[in-house]
Amino acid sequence: MQVTQSHDVTGHVDFVGAGPGDPELLTLKAIKAFESADIVLHDRLISAEILQLAGKTAVLVDVGKAGFGPSWKQADIDALLVDYATKGQRVVRLKSGDPTVFGRLDEEIEAVEAAGVPWQIVPGITAASAAVASIGQSLTQRGRNSSVRFLTGHDMKGFADHDWNALARPGAVAAIYMGKKSARFIQGRLIMHGADRATPITLVENASRPDQRILATDLDRLPNDLSAAEMDGPTLTFFGLAPRHAVQALTEFKKEHA
User: Which stretches make up the Tetrapyrrole methylase domain (predicted)?
Assistant: First the structure.
Protein backbone atom coordinates (compact mmCIF):
# COMPACT_ATOMS: atom_id res chain seq x y z
CA MET A 1 0.00 0.00 0.00
CA GLN A 2 1.23 3.50 -0.81
CA VAL A 3 2.55 5.49 2.15
CA THR A 4 1.14 8.98 2.62
CA GLN A 5 3.43 10.54 5.23
CA SER A 6 4.06 14.30 5.30
CA HIS A 7 7.18 15.71 3.65
CA ASP A 8 8.09 17.10 7.10
CA VAL A 9 8.64 13.55 8.45
CA THR A 10 10.75 12.16 5.64
CA GLY A 11 11.53 12.67 2.01
CA HIS A 12 9.21 11.84 -0.83
CA VAL A 13 9.53 10.44 -4.36
CA ASP A 14 7.34 11.50 -7.26
CA PHE A 15 7.58 9.25 -10.32
CA VAL A 16 6.76 11.83 -12.98
CA GLY A 17 6.02 11.34 -16.66
CA ALA A 18 7.80 14.00 -18.73
CA GLY A 19 5.80 13.19 -21.84
CA PRO A 20 7.40 12.94 -25.29
CA GLY A 21 9.41 16.15 -25.12
CA ASP A 22 7.14 19.13 -25.76
CA PRO A 23 6.94 21.02 -22.43
CA GLU A 24 3.39 22.12 -23.27
CA LEU A 25 2.32 18.48 -22.99
CA LEU A 26 3.32 18.26 -19.33
CA THR A 27 0.44 17.94 -16.87
CA LEU A 28 -0.10 20.65 -14.26
CA LYS A 29 0.55 18.06 -11.56
CA ALA A 30 3.90 17.18 -13.15
CA ILE A 31 4.95 20.84 -13.24
CA LYS A 32 3.94 21.31 -9.60
CA ALA A 33 6.04 18.33 -8.51
CA PHE A 34 8.91 19.46 -10.69
CA GLU A 35 8.97 23.02 -9.32
CA SER A 36 9.04 21.83 -5.70
CA ALA A 37 11.71 19.17 -6.14
CA ASP A 38 15.04 19.23 -4.32
CA ILE A 39 16.50 16.51 -6.53
CA VAL A 40 15.54 15.51 -10.08
CA LEU A 41 16.80 12.14 -11.30
CA HIS A 42 16.06 12.22 -15.00
CA ASP A 43 16.25 9.98 -18.04
CA ARG A 44 18.79 10.61 -20.79
CA LEU A 45 16.14 11.60 -23.34
CA ILE A 46 14.40 14.35 -21.34
CA SER A 47 14.38 17.54 -23.41
CA ALA A 48 16.36 20.59 -22.26
CA GLU A 49 13.17 22.68 -22.37
CA ILE A 50 11.57 20.46 -19.73
CA LEU A 51 14.64 20.35 -17.49
CA GLN A 52 14.66 24.16 -17.48
CA LEU A 53 11.31 24.08 -15.66
CA ALA A 54 12.87 22.62 -12.52
CA GLY A 55 13.01 24.81 -9.42
CA LYS A 56 16.02 27.13 -9.22
CA THR A 57 17.51 25.22 -6.30
CA ALA A 58 16.85 21.73 -7.68
CA VAL A 59 19.83 19.48 -8.35
CA LEU A 60 19.58 17.70 -11.72
CA VAL A 61 21.11 14.22 -11.95
CA ASP A 62 21.26 12.38 -15.28
CA VAL A 63 20.67 8.68 -14.63
CA GLY A 64 19.95 7.83 -18.24
CA LYS A 65 20.06 4.46 -19.90
CA ALA A 66 21.06 3.83 -23.51
CA GLY A 67 19.93 0.75 -25.41
CA PHE A 68 22.94 -1.45 -26.19
CA GLY A 69 25.21 1.28 -24.75
CA PRO A 70 26.67 2.64 -21.50
CA SER A 71 23.95 2.94 -18.87
CA TRP A 72 23.34 3.46 -15.21
CA LYS A 73 22.68 0.18 -13.42
CA GLN A 74 19.13 -0.09 -12.16
CA ALA A 75 20.34 -1.03 -8.67
CA ASP A 76 22.38 2.18 -8.51
CA ILE A 77 19.36 4.30 -9.49
CA ASP A 78 17.26 2.54 -6.84
CA ALA A 79 19.94 3.21 -4.22
CA LEU A 80 20.18 6.88 -5.18
CA LEU A 81 16.41 7.34 -4.88
CA VAL A 82 16.41 5.82 -1.42
CA ASP A 83 19.51 7.72 -0.30
CA TYR A 84 18.14 11.15 -1.22
CA ALA A 85 14.62 10.48 0.07
CA THR A 86 15.71 9.08 3.43
CA LYS A 87 17.74 12.26 3.94
CA GLY A 88 14.51 14.25 3.72
CA GLN A 89 14.76 15.36 0.09
CA ARG A 90 11.79 15.83 -2.25
CA VAL A 91 12.82 13.66 -5.19
CA VAL A 92 11.35 13.67 -8.67
CA ARG A 93 12.18 10.60 -10.72
CA LEU A 94 11.57 12.07 -14.15
CA LYS A 95 10.88 9.51 -16.85
CA SER A 96 10.33 9.99 -20.58
CA GLY A 97 6.73 9.57 -21.72
CA ASP A 98 4.63 7.83 -19.10
CA PRO A 99 6.45 6.13 -16.20
CA THR A 100 4.11 3.11 -16.35
CA VAL A 101 5.06 2.21 -19.95
CA PHE A 102 8.42 0.43 -20.30
CA GLY A 103 9.83 2.58 -17.50
CA ARG A 104 11.17 0.02 -14.99
CA LEU A 105 8.75 1.63 -12.56
CA ASP A 106 8.02 -1.44 -10.41
CA GLU A 107 11.66 -1.95 -9.49
CA GLU A 108 12.03 1.61 -8.27
CA ILE A 109 8.76 1.59 -6.35
CA GLU A 110 9.78 -1.62 -4.60
CA ALA A 111 13.07 -0.01 -3.56
CA VAL A 112 11.50 3.10 -2.02
CA GLU A 113 8.69 1.12 -0.41
CA ALA A 114 11.21 -1.20 1.24
CA ALA A 115 12.87 1.90 2.72
CA GLY A 116 9.54 3.26 3.99
CA VAL A 117 9.62 6.25 1.66
CA PRO A 118 6.28 7.78 0.55
CA TRP A 119 5.71 8.06 -3.20
CA GLN A 120 3.20 8.77 -5.92
CA ILE A 121 2.94 8.32 -9.69
CA VAL A 122 2.26 11.34 -11.89
CA PRO A 123 1.31 9.98 -15.33
CA GLY A 124 2.49 11.54 -18.56
CA ILE A 125 1.68 11.33 -22.26
CA THR A 126 3.32 8.24 -23.66
CA ALA A 127 5.24 8.31 -26.96
CA ALA A 128 2.60 6.28 -28.79
CA SER A 129 -0.10 8.87 -28.07
CA ALA A 130 2.07 11.78 -29.17
CA ALA A 131 3.38 9.99 -32.24
CA VAL A 132 -0.01 8.81 -33.49
CA ALA A 133 -1.35 12.34 -33.09
CA SER A 134 1.52 13.61 -35.24
CA ILE A 135 0.44 11.40 -38.16
CA GLY A 136 -3.25 12.25 -37.81
CA GLN A 137 -4.33 8.71 -36.98
CA SER A 138 -6.11 6.82 -34.23
CA LEU A 139 -4.66 3.81 -32.46
CA THR A 140 -8.00 2.00 -32.80
CA GLN A 141 -10.67 2.14 -35.47
CA ARG A 142 -14.06 0.47 -35.73
CA GLY A 143 -13.97 -2.26 -38.34
CA ARG A 144 -10.16 -2.37 -38.36
CA ASN A 145 -8.82 -3.13 -34.90
CA SER A 146 -10.48 -3.25 -31.49
CA SER A 147 -7.14 -3.54 -29.70
CA VAL A 148 -3.64 -2.16 -30.01
CA ARG A 149 -0.41 -3.67 -28.72
CA PHE A 150 2.37 -1.72 -27.04
CA LEU A 151 5.59 -3.64 -27.65
CA THR A 152 9.26 -3.22 -26.85
CA GLY A 153 11.84 -3.93 -29.52
CA HIS A 154 14.27 -5.45 -27.05
CA ASP A 155 14.27 -6.69 -23.48
CA MET A 156 16.85 -7.96 -20.99
CA LYS A 157 17.58 -10.99 -23.17
CA GLY A 158 18.05 -9.11 -26.45
CA PHE A 159 15.47 -8.68 -29.22
CA ALA A 160 12.05 -9.21 -27.66
CA ASP A 161 9.79 -12.05 -28.78
CA HIS A 162 6.04 -11.54 -29.18
CA ASP A 163 2.86 -13.24 -30.42
CA TRP A 164 3.86 -12.92 -34.07
CA ASN A 165 0.83 -14.90 -35.29
CA ALA A 166 -1.54 -12.35 -33.78
CA LEU A 167 0.49 -9.41 -35.03
CA ALA A 168 0.60 -10.78 -38.56
CA ARG A 169 -3.19 -10.85 -38.91
CA PRO A 170 -4.83 -8.28 -41.23
CA GLY A 171 -5.83 -5.11 -39.40
CA ALA A 172 -3.45 -5.58 -36.46
CA VAL A 173 -1.90 -2.40 -35.06
CA ALA A 174 1.12 -2.18 -32.78
CA ALA A 175 3.16 0.65 -31.29
CA ILE A 176 6.76 -0.52 -30.99
CA TYR A 177 9.04 1.24 -28.53
CA MET A 178 12.84 1.00 -28.91
CA GLY A 179 12.40 -0.80 -32.21
CA LYS A 180 15.06 0.69 -34.49
CA LYS A 181 17.84 -1.80 -33.81
CA SER A 182 15.39 -4.71 -33.95
CA ALA A 183 13.68 -3.61 -37.19
CA ARG A 184 15.10 -6.41 -39.36
CA PHE A 185 14.36 -8.99 -36.66
CA ILE A 186 10.74 -7.77 -36.38
CA GLN A 187 10.35 -7.74 -40.16
CA GLY A 188 11.62 -11.32 -40.43
CA ARG A 189 9.38 -12.67 -37.69
CA LEU A 190 6.26 -10.99 -39.09
CA ILE A 191 6.86 -12.14 -42.66
CA MET A 192 7.64 -15.64 -41.41
CA HIS A 193 4.23 -15.71 -39.72
CA GLY A 194 2.33 -14.54 -42.79
CA ALA A 195 2.18 -10.75 -42.50
CA ASP A 196 1.56 -8.89 -45.76
CA ARG A 197 4.79 -7.29 -46.96
CA ALA A 198 2.75 -4.23 -48.01
CA THR A 199 1.56 -3.58 -44.45
CA PRO A 200 2.16 0.12 -43.72
CA ILE A 201 4.86 1.04 -41.23
CA THR A 202 5.34 4.55 -39.86
CA LEU A 203 8.27 5.71 -37.76
CA VAL A 204 8.10 8.95 -35.79
CA GLU A 205 11.38 10.34 -34.52
CA ASN A 206 11.38 12.92 -31.69
CA ALA A 207 7.59 12.97 -31.49
CA SER A 208 6.14 16.38 -30.54
CA ARG A 209 9.53 18.13 -30.69
CA PRO A 210 10.61 20.81 -33.18
CA ASP A 211 12.94 18.32 -34.90
CA GLN A 212 10.24 15.65 -35.29
CA ARG A 213 10.55 13.50 -38.43
CA ILE A 214 8.09 11.05 -39.95
CA LEU A 215 9.10 8.11 -42.13
CA ALA A 216 6.32 6.31 -44.02
CA THR A 217 7.28 2.90 -45.42
CA ASP A 218 6.00 -0.68 -45.44
CA LEU A 219 7.06 -3.99 -43.93
CA ASP A 220 8.99 -5.04 -47.03
CA ARG A 221 11.10 -1.87 -47.18
CA LEU A 222 11.38 -1.20 -43.43
CA PRO A 223 15.07 -2.01 -42.71
CA ASN A 224 16.42 -0.36 -45.85
CA ASP A 225 14.33 2.80 -45.52
CA LEU A 226 15.16 3.10 -41.83
CA SER A 227 18.87 2.77 -42.55
CA ALA A 228 18.68 5.43 -45.26
CA ALA A 229 16.79 7.83 -42.97
CA GLU A 230 19.57 7.77 -40.34
CA MET A 231 17.22 8.37 -37.43
CA ASP A 232 19.31 9.04 -34.33
CA GLY A 233 16.63 10.30 -31.91
CA PRO A 234 14.04 8.36 -29.90
CA THR A 235 11.73 6.73 -32.43
CA LEU A 236 8.29 5.12 -32.15
CA THR A 237 7.39 2.54 -34.81
CA PHE A 238 3.79 1.93 -35.82
CA PHE A 239 2.96 -1.39 -37.44
CA GLY A 240 -0.27 -1.20 -39.46
CA LEU A 241 -0.61 2.59 -39.62
CA ALA A 242 0.26 5.12 -42.32
CA PRO A 243 0.15 8.92 -41.96
CA ARG A 244 -2.94 10.64 -43.26
CA HIS A 245 -2.10 12.27 -46.59
CA ALA A 246 -2.97 15.76 -45.32
CA VAL A 247 -0.65 15.42 -42.34
CA GLN A 248 2.19 14.05 -44.46
CA ALA A 249 1.80 16.88 -46.94
CA LEU A 250 1.85 19.47 -44.14
CA THR A 251 5.00 17.92 -42.69
CA GLU A 252 6.77 18.06 -46.05
CA PHE A 253 5.62 21.67 -46.58
CA LYS A 254 7.08 22.72 -43.22
CA LYS A 255 10.42 21.09 -44.09
CA GLU A 256 10.58 22.89 -47.42
CA HIS A 257 9.88 26.27 -45.81
CA ALA A 258 11.94 25.84 -42.66
Answer: 15-222
Q: Write down how long the chain is.
A: 258
Please choose, from the candidates 37, 66, 65, the residue with its C-alpha nearest in 3D space to the C-alpha of residue 51.
37
For the entire predicted model, the pTM comes to: 0.86
User: Is 2 part of any domain?
Assistant: no
Q: Which of 14, 22, 38, 43 is catalytic?
A: 43
Residue 169: per-residue pLDDT: 94
Inside any domain, residue 6? no
Q: Which of 65, 83, 196, 218 is catalytic?
A: 65
32 is catalytic: no
> Which residues constitute the domain of residue 223?
127-256
Contact 61, 41 (CB under 8 A): yes
Q: 43 an active-site residue?
A: yes
